[in-house]
Task: inverse folding
């Protein structure tokens, strides 16, 4: 995985630059002071790494505060867990298997192969029935999906394969099941199409190209929830935590100590990054333990790197709000205004496929969409960071925009 | 003697962005080991003056030298040498007093024993309490403990006794005297004249951004009497506050 190494290297470089920029100024002032003090008064101690000591102290303090602040903990941790448990339970059985009625009206080899491909999908429970029986099952809720292979399927007319349509109907009352099953059928069909158009003469359909992994709703939901919790952590907890420090005067008290203000910001950021990793591991573990969430062990590293990247992007937004707002009353509506649309439009609870085309295009550019899509791709398909580079780039661009704006808006008082 | 002053303020000025002149050319010096009071009514410019000295507010004009350092040029070095108690003392929520003192230790890269600091301000039994659980007097005492973490050459106390009951106020005076006894210079603001008279070696009286008088309390009183001043009421041997303390006792109520 050369690309992963590259990305790790780049992130390490970025972290190093940040530390140099933020922490070393404190270090320098310390060493400068020891020379200055020689003239006036010898100092009691020489501590070289004061920046580190302060950074560590502040990070430990804010971690403690974080775990003791029950409200913040609830909003950033338990909400996503509750969502996972509730939605995971509701849809747990629905997607474990799909009941599918197949009516094969064709007698061709291709139709038989298609029927066999359907049979290979482990989550499909297939019954071969007549068209009437299928319609009846669908009405009585005895089938999630009916698939009709028309008589013309796979027939050769004038040396070419006849165009034919496989008709799939699903139960409108339980669309989440039928739609998912229909999508798998469609993938199988397009796999057939590809193989046929590319090699017109061979009617071999060995590789249907369909993922037969038994992906269920939890596999869709959980990466979205991880993304959501990271957004909450970045925007809400940063904006509120920081504004609270501002209004109570604690920030000013910190400024009265020789610590560089940027070290204080860095400590806040490091705390959130640690929390992001913690939350991500917690949510994935819950999903895997209770709801059979699938994630390969090799996906952990890119998954967590994405979580860190997303967390950095949303923290930039949070610090922007915190730096701009004078009090909680100002921070609250702005944070909500940014968070709420993304919560529902970024494909965290349900796919964006159902959106009108224009909305799909627009929501595709949201930072949470990039994060959720990338996390899902990595978790579900074992994709590498390089494979989701489009989403990573999107996040980086958002991070730069948010970072620029928050530096512009930031003021300490 | 013959040593330079610990704090030398020369023609210090502050004009805010809206054009308001809060401090209009203030000069004074504070010797090492002194308790120096800045007195004045609300809005006189006491806090602004203090915050400029503490490097927390930008200086419009003039200069401040503290322990041989120009506060405008070396703000971080100055902050390492002083302890600052702000008027509104807020602390991280959800952290215990010991943990807060440990944090302040880290911020100064120091390792002063938190319990020792708490003993100094008589809060040992509150070591595991949160700052928000303290009474007004306790909070002020804790706030002073945080200023002592770095063994400062000078501590700045901005209205340390405002809002405290007479018992807590007297208790804090004892603390200030105790700090002075250890050789630390104390610069405080107050609008209680009795407090200034008891605590301060010298006071500066500020009004409308200017120092209108500066001397020891005794000399200022003698000067006034010398101008032929007669009090409006007959001088009594005791005040109502003496009565209050006599009746309610000196023990702290927090």
Result:
């Amino acid at each position: 995985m050369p690309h992963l190494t590259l990305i790790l290297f780049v992130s390490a470089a970025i972290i190093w630059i940040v530390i140099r920029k933020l922490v070393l100024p404190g270090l320098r002032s310390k060493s400068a002071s020891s020379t200055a003090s020689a003239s006036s008064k010898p100092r009691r101690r020489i501590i070289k790494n004061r920046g580190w000591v302060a950074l560590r102290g502040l990070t430990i303090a804010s971690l403690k505060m974080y775990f003791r602040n029950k409200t913040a903990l609830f909003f950033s941790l338990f909400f996503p867990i509750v969502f996972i448990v509730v939605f995971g339970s509701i849809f747990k059985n629905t997607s474990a298997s799909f009941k599918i009625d197949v009516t094969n009206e064709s007698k061709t080899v291709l139709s038989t192969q298609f029927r066999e491909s359907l049979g290979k999908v482990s989550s499909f429970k297939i019954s071969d029935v007549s068209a009437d029986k299928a319609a009846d099952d669908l009405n009585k809720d005895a089938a999630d999906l009916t698939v009709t292979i028309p008589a013309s399927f796979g027939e050769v007319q004038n040396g070419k394969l006849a165009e034919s349509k496989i008709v799939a109907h699903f139960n409108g009352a339980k669309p989440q099941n039928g739609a998912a099953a229909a999508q798998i059928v469609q993938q199988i069909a397009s796999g057939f199409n590809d193989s046929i158009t590319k090699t017109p003469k061979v009617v071999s359909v060995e590789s249907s190209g369909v993922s037969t992994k038994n992906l269920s709703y939890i596999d869709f939901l959980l990466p979205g929830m991880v993304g959501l919790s990271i957004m909450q952590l970045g925007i809400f907890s940063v904006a509120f935590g920081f504004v609270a420090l501002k209004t109570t005067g604690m920030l000013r008290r910190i400024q009265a100590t020789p610590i560089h203000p940027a070290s204080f910001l860095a400590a806040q950021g490091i705390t959130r990054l640690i929390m992001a990793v913690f939350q991500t591991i917690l949510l994935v573990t819950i999903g895997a333990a209770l709801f059979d969430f699938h994630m390969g062990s090799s996906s952990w590293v890119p998954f967590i790197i994405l979580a860190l990247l997303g967390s950095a992007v949303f923290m930039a937004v949070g610090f922007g709000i915190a730096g701009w707002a004078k009090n909680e009353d100002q921070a609250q509506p702005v944070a909500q205004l940014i968070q709420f649309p993304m919560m529902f439009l970024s494909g965290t609870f349900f796919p964006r496929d159902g959106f009108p085309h224009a909305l799909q295009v627009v929501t595709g550019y949201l930072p949470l969409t990039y994060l959720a899509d990338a996390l899902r791709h990595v978790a579900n398909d074992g994709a590498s960071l390089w494979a989701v580079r489009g989403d990573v780039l999107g996040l980086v661009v958002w991070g730069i925009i948010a970072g620029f704006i928050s530096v512009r808006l930031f003021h300490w008082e | 003697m013959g040593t330079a002053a610990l704090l030398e303020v020369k023609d210090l000025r502050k004009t805010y962005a809206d054009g308001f002149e809060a401090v209009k050319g203030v000069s004074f010096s504070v010797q090492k080991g002194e308790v120096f009071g800045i007195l004045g009514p609300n809005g006189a410019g006491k806090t602004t003056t203090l915050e400029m000295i503490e490097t927390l507010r930008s200086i419009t004009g003039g200069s401040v030298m503290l322990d041989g350092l120009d506060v405008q040029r070396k703000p971080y070095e100055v902050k390492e040498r002083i302890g600052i108690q702000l008027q509104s003392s807020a602390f991280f929520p959800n952290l215990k007093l010991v943990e807060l003192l440990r944090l302040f230790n880290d911020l100064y890269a120091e390792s002063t024993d938190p319990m020792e600091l708490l003993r100094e301000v008589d809060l040992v039994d509150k070591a595991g309490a949160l700052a928000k659980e303290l009474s007004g007097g306790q909070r002020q005492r804790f706030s002073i403990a945080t200023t002592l973490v770095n063994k400062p050459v000078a501590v700045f106390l901005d209205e340390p006794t405002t809002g405290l009951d007479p018992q807590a106020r007297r208790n804090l005076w004892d603390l200030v005297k105790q700090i002075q006894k250890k050789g630390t210079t104390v610069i405080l603001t107050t609008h209680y004249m009795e407090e200034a008279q008891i605590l301060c070696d010298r006071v500066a009286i500020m009004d409308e951004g200017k120092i209108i008088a500066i001397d020891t309390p005794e000399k200022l009183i003698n000067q006034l009497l010398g101008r032929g001043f007669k009090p409006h009421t007959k001088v009594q041997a005791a005040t109502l506050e003496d009565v209050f303390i006599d009746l309610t006792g000196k023990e702290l109520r927090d």
About this structure: The CA atoms of residues 118 and 124 of chain B lie 5 Å apart. The radius of gyration of chain B is 19 Å.
